Amino acid sequence: MTQPNILELAKQGDVDAIASLMNRHLHPKGITAQVAFKDAWLEVTLESAQVPNQQILVAFIRKGLTGLGAASIENVKIYGQQTGKKFPAWSKEFNLGIVEDELEAADNEESSSEPQFLTIFINLSGDTARELTNQDFESIANKISSDILSSCTDVFIQKVSISNGSSVITKER
Known about the structure:
alpha/beta
């Protein structure tokens, strides 16, 4: 296929032509793109030795598909997967008709309207010579929980379960 033919076919929604154009840019970076139409969605699977960078590649694909202007492509699903893994490390869906600012606003709305649940399990173990009392154990467990949660924003703690031999702290909120 010559370049004008590939470009024309891609504009018509031909998945092989779209994959060829993507791979032309991605192969030098060690990334392979597979493209298919499934249930009215253009599905793009990106695979490389390391998990592909979601932010950069979603923007790259969105810009490329928007530039193609293929009328047959409205909805896009992108998967990022490490070579040899059974399941993708991440996925992103979008509608090509929605501009990026609207998409970000929708994502922010979605994440703020739905609470995110986090369950923490911590298992502390030590030898009996150190004489870890239940009070010491609870203090250490609370410190570990605080450290974990300090890096999380807008998270609802569903349950914290910490065990040390026979001592168990469970907090449900």
